Each structure stands twice: as C-alpha cells, then as structure tokens.
Amino acid sequence: MPESTVTTEPTTTAEGANPVSAPPALLESILPRLEIRQSFKGEYTAACPFCRVGELYVYVSPQAGFLCLNEHCKRTGSLEKLAYMLEALPRTDEVGQDAADLGWPEPPDKEAFYGLAGDFVRTIEPHSEADPVGLLGSFLVAFGNLVGRRAHAVAERDRHHTNLFVALVGETSKARKGSSWGQVRFSFEAMDPEWSERILSGLSTGEGLIWQVRDAVERDEPLRVKGKVTGRQQVMVDAGIEDKRLLVVESELASALKVISREGNTLSAVIRDAWDRGELRTLTKNSPARATGAHISILAHITREELRRYLQATEAANGFANRFLWLCVRRSKVLPEGGRLREVDFSSTSPSSALRCASLARRPARSSATRRRGASGRTSTRTSPRAGRDSSAR
Ligand SMILES: [Zn+2]
User: Fold this and answer.
1) Are 78 and 20 in contact, with CB atoms under 8 Å apart?
2) 49 Cα: distance to centroid of ligand 1 (angstroms)
3) In 3-state terms, what secondary structure has residue 220?
4) Assigned architecture for domain 132-359
5) What is the three-class DSSP state of 146?
6) Cis omega before residue 62 (within 30°)?
7) Which of 32, 69, 165, 204 has the fewest CB atoms within 10 Å, i.e. the most exposed one?
C-alpha cells in the first residue's frame, strides 16, 4: 500500500460524529482483508465482504469510514467499526486447511443475483448469517419445485423442467447451511401452504422416493350382480399421490451417499431418472409402484470432508454427481442477536409479488390430473379450495 495515500490527520467518521484518526496500522489491518478493486486518493473500492453483492467504499480522507452501496446492505460506520466487523468474519483457517490450500471459489458475478432471486437474497442477506450463495441456491430449488411440472425450457427435443438438485458444501455449523433453507422455506410456505406438505427429508431407497409421488393403482376385477359376473370393473387399490411435486431436503447427504454405495440399492438410479424425465419405476418385483410426471427437487447439505470420503468414483462417473449443483457455503457474518428480519417490510418488495406469480404459474398443471379423475367418476381424495377456483375459472 502506498504510504502517500494514507493520512494520519484527525478526521471525522462517515457518521459525522466523533473525530477519529485513521492511523496506517488500522488500515493495514483492514486492507488485506478486502478484495480491493480500485484505489484513488485515499478512497478504496472493494467487494463488500458482508453482503458479497454490493460495492464497499472505504474512505481514508477527509472522512474516515466505509459505506456499502448495496441498498439492502448499506453498512456504514467508522474504520474502527469496519475493522471490528471484519474481525467477526470467519477466517480462511475456519473453513478447513484443505479449503485454504485450494483457495475458496470466487464469489459469483453479480449477474447470478439477477431478478427475483437476487432481490430475495439482497432483502434477506443483511439479517442472516447464511451465505448469500446458499440463500440463492435454496431459493432457486424451492422456486423451481413450487412452480411444478408446467414450466419448462425446450432444448432440441427435450423438455428441461425446473426441478434442481443443489448440494450446499460447508462446515457443519459454521457455514450455517441450515439457516439459508430456513429463510427460504419461511417465505415460500407463507405463500403456498399446500406446497409445504410436499417437503420431506431423508433419502434411503429408490422405492421410498417413488412412493412419495406414486401414481394411482387400479385393478381390473369382475363386476358381480347378485353373485353373477356381469362385466368388469376398475377398482381403485391406491389413490396414489396427486401432487407430483416433492422437495427432498437432505441435511445429511453423506448418509444417502453411504446407502447408495450398497449393492442393490436403487436410489442412485431413481434420483438420476427424477432429474432427467420424472418417469420413475424400479425393476424390483415386490415394489410395483411407479410414478409419471414426478417433479422432484433436492436440497442437500454435506461437509467437504464427507463429500470427498463418500462420493464414490462410480457415482461421479455415472452422472449422479453431474446432476447436482455443488455450492461452497460459509457463514457470511456474525449476528449475535440475530437479524432484524421481522422489521423488513416484504409487502413492498418484489419477492412477495413474484412469489405470487409462481403460485399462479403452477395452477393449471395440477388441475389436469384432478379433471381426469373427476371425469372417471372418482372424486379426488383431497379437494382444495384452490382446485375449485381453478375449475370455475376455466
Ligand atoms: Zn454490502
């Protein structure tokens, strides 16, 4: 750092309160911890280490202080405060020696925080210890699952649906993997309480996964009138699951990976089919359950060590690992008293309005199944007020 850019004269804080000095020692402790992008006449611009989406301005003269330009972050104060806040951030050695050796991945470009998902992250981030990348990944998984089977992109002859598999990789408690999901779940559940019933945890067998989204099973039986067979009839053996959305939140992906490595386990194959097409069945004789149009998303958590230990070469090679987005996460900040999320007014932010759009987007998809079932003379096991609204609107 050039000596000339540092002033030792007493200055005032950005808050304009008490005059403080910005001795080189303080700056020397601050600057190495920032990703400096530009410096000009005692003014430094860095990537904001707190929100990781905004630009942080550090002023050395005439006002010593800092300010983040991200309107949802807007962290500001004296250089002493900045030094203190930086001290509270986890250091590289806290994310494991291996991570330190390899270096932490570069944070995503700001384009990754585009649109609704970005608005959501910027709104929540100042009040959460969760990594913005974890918030973003969790949001995209939840949104993609809630939207359901109707939305898709077409690539050549294939339809790519919005069900994502995301694995958050980080240290157990320090990375706050859980809290990113907690924030996302809270926001989405409020919008679609029905969807919250489609969130399950625990992956153990392929059959178990299919069971959660299984098709109805009907059996062909003789129709008897006064003991005489007069024809055939279809008898509903199992109503199946009408809502084909399923979000699996697997807080211990390591245990699922261990299960997958056992011989004869169908989980890996079913998970791959769920990502590819959503047409699921196993070849096991005693589990005839099958599922069509399944919309399964996975949000998983694992530590780096577990991932290296349990992800077998076969799963890396057969495309299981390819179907996951692996995101490195760590605690973004320390909030000893928690955030002030309750004070945030969500009604005026775009997340809430766009979340309502998501709810509208998925409506027609699920009513087609209801309509078919209604036409065959069997009423659905669960008629919701929403399903009623759908048919009347048509
Ligand atoms: Zn910031």
Assistant:
1) yes
2) 7
3) strand
4) 3-Layer(aba) Sandwich (3.40)
5) helix
6) yes
7) 32
**pLDDT for 159:** 84
Say what the pTM is: 0.65
Neighbours of ion ligand 1 (CB under 5 A): 48, 50-51, 54, 68, 70, 73
Determine the average pLDDT of the residues in 99-112: 72
325 Cα–ligand 1 center, Å: 25
Which pLDDT belongs to residue 390?
36
* Bridge partner residues of 291 (DSSP): 280
pLDDT tens digit string along 119-162? 888 888 888 888 889 999 999 999 999 999 988 998 888 888 99
AA letter at 254: A
Alpha helices in the chain (DSSP H): 24-30, 79-88, 97-102, 115-124, 132-147, 177-191, 193-196, 206-211, 253-260, 267-276, 304-310, 313-317, 350-375, 385-393
The average pLDDT across 47-73 equals 84
DSSP assignment of 15-57 equals TS-SEEE--HHHHHHHGGGSEEEEEETTEEEEE-TTTSSSEEE
58 contacts 42 by C-beta, under 8 angstroms = no
Give, as one character, the DSSP assignment of residue 152.
E
Provide mean pLDDT across the span 289-312: 90
In the reported structure, the alpha carbon of residue 117 is separated from the centroid of ligand 1 by a whole-number distance in angstroms of 17
Dist. CA 298 → ligand 1 center (Å):
30
Question: What's the chain's average pLDDT?
Answer: 77
Query: 253-260 vs 267-276: helix axis angle to the nearest 10?
Result: 110
Taking the domains of the chain in order of start, what are their residue ranges? 3-89, 132-359
